[in-house]
């Protein structure tokens, strides 16, 4: 019998305060671009999308993530953007912090150590706010949203009646361990 697989990705998940502000921003964006707004509880920034991973690989995956020791950092969400090819309207950072790049590089290197790889090697930090948007005009400049990042997560994507539902499987702190 084929081994069960889980659809997995690694991501940053905003806290409640940031979710409220991002959801508000999604409303501002929707007034311009229409489309379907992401449910607040699904707002996130993907670091690496893995797709279907055999269940038996998950302990190894968690072990190498636990070995990453990235610094804590803060994201400034201060940009709206639109991809006409997939009709995604997203929020992001004009100047992503160096520590975000370091975290992504560390996560990708850790994945290699257990012979897992993201479906795409490139990484563009974004939070999808709207799907099926149509934008023909300039997007407004948002009020910056400060998002202190203290952890990153392993998340499973499952389909349910309401679309994709995301389930946290594990998380690791960005702060270095004391000592
Ligand atoms: P998106 O929001 O830009 O569509 C869970 O589905 C997360 O993984 C989303 O952030 C989604 O990005 C991303 N994702 C889904 N399928 C992907 C793929 N094939 N390659 C890269 N990222 C993907």
From TrEMBL:
Gene3D superfamilies, per database record: Cyclic phosphodiesterase
Annotated coiled-coil segments of the chain: none
Keyword check for Nucleotide-binding: no
Span(s) of short sequence motif HXTX 1: 44-47
GO MF annotations in UniProt: 2',3'-cyclic-nucleotide 3'-phosphodiesterase activity; RNA 2',3'-cyclic 3'-phosphodiesterase activity
Entry annotated with the keyword Disulfide bond: no
Catalytic activity: a 3'-end 2',3'-cyclophospho-ribonucleotide-RNA + H2O = a 3'-end 2'-phospho-ribonucleotide-RNA + H(+)
Function as written in the Swiss-Prot or TrEMBL entry: Hydrolyzes RNA 2',3'-cyclic phosphodiester to an RNA 2'-phosphomonoester.
Matches recorded under PANTHER family: RNA 2',3'-CYCLIC PHOSPHODIESTERASE (PTHR35561:SF1)
Protein name: RNA 2',3'-cyclic phosphodiesterase
Originating organism: Zoogloea dura
